[in-house]
Amino acid sequence: MIENRTKTDEVVIDAAGHVVGRLASVAAKKLLEGQKITLVNAEKAVFTGNKRSIKGHYLMLARRKQRTSHKKITVWYPSRPDTLLKNSITRMLPKKKPRGRNAASRLRVYTGIPNQYTAEKLQTIEKAQLRGATSSSGKILKSMTLGDLAAEMGWTKR
Hints:
With 158 residues, the chain is of the alpha/beta class.
């Protein structure tokens, strides 16, 4: 089955100020529906929570060991913000089924805004945006951008 995709089928989303988990779930759902998704400004996406616990969790993931083989000692984990965001989206897709693999192939994630998308209108997802410094119960929200986390994990290119 050959599908004719036009430029209008592609959705370009600005990830700046979006909460990573909410953005990933909405993007995964759109990918499974057949849309092509391009995310720009991946380094400006936001994790909510305590910075020390976020850094500790992701540094633990990056430094864990594989105990089943003596040939490959460490488990690879990305440190770039675009690959971190792409992995969080693709892990929400059914990777062992063809529709999940096809959906993952329709996803593009970039740090910054590439030249081909500067003239396009960037969309935002209202449900995924970080609305303010306080939650609905009045609690102060702590947050950390994906670029800051990547810098803590060793990403040097900004």
